[in-house]
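Q: Give me the 3D complex with 1,3-dihydroxyacetonephosphate.
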Amino acid sequence: MTAVLEDVRVLEDYLVMPEVEVAERIESAREALGKRVVILGHHYQRDDVIRHADLQGDSYQLSVMAAKADADYIVFCGVHFMAESAYVLGREGQQVILPDLGAGCSMADMANIDQVEDAWEQLREIGVLNSRVAPITYMNSTAAIKAFCGRNEGVVCTSSNAVPLFDIYLKEYDKMFFFPDQHLGRNTGAKFGIPLDKMVVWNPHEELGGNTPEQLLDAKLILWRGHCSVHGRFKDWHVDKIREQVPGVKVLVHPECTYEVVQKSDLNGSTSYIIKTVEESPSGSKWAIGTEVNLVNRLAQRFPDKEIHLLAPDLCMCATMYRIAPQNLAWALENLADGNVVNEIIVDGDTKHYANVALERMISMTETKN
Ligand code: 13P
Ligand code: SF4
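A: Here is the predicted complex, encoded as structure tokens.
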């Protein structure tokens, strides 16, 4: 039987609705859709959105959840590269919806596939690829870059598995080319004792990334010049200041923070590592956390018996994560319940295939290491 599609509902109608009504409509649409839909939510989502998620996680956990999801529709409350990865890992015919297509990631936008392929060719021309070089991309990248890694023996990593994956690749390869977050790459390289002068930065706007052939031949890690503008707001002097202001405080940061901040911190790890660390800490413990403000505020509310500070006093909010608002979620879900798929995320077949190679390689290597 052919489904009769109702007219597509318009987002503008939701923008003027009272918040309570929006929340009720999200829940009714969810109920109507039942097991046909699963709502995934990243830890940085705002409170009024995350409360509707069926499953919450960091970018690694969400990719595993997407790979296992049985629902016809995955509604992704997160950013574009996460929804793309869910589509790549999802089963045939499953549809992935991003409630606001403007929810991107400024770091992922700092590398595009043409620049990456051009860089790879330049490395080939100067003989760097005569040794074994593995391209590794952070999850925060386009599906096309993930596919490039899949085609070239590389892998995807996230902040939660960068260490075990570096461990595997550093043993088997002479060098790694890491995109697009120079900080995660440098912080992880430092954990393996790679000296800073063996980690060079590739600026995509300069010939040879701004390096000499000798520097590139000598490097162990070539780091793409990308960064997160949210985590980049934490400075090493914030660490000094909070230690002065709050005696006994422990500084816990995401590895997207700069090398200097991570070096001065007590602990660093992915968003789920940050949550777990605070959850397991004793009552009365004091934390200064260097990551997105929505997550830090939620931790402070959940644990009133612990003293939780944002590492920097100014607002460190991921504006693109924030674009997923309850209004967009209600609009996307009610359209789905009517049989209209809005804001669908699709990746072409060849890119999907090779991006899947790199993502599945990540999942199997991570599971083997655990
Ligand atoms: P996680 O891998 O910790 O979820 O981080 C993703 C991200 O975008 C952090 O800025
Ligand atoms: Fe991208 Fe930074 Fe936002 Fe994470 S916090 S999604 S890296 S801009």
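A quick observation: The pocket of 1,3-dihydroxyacetonephosphate (ligand 1) is lined by residues 58-60, 140, 158-160, 228, 256, 270-271 (CB under 6 Å).
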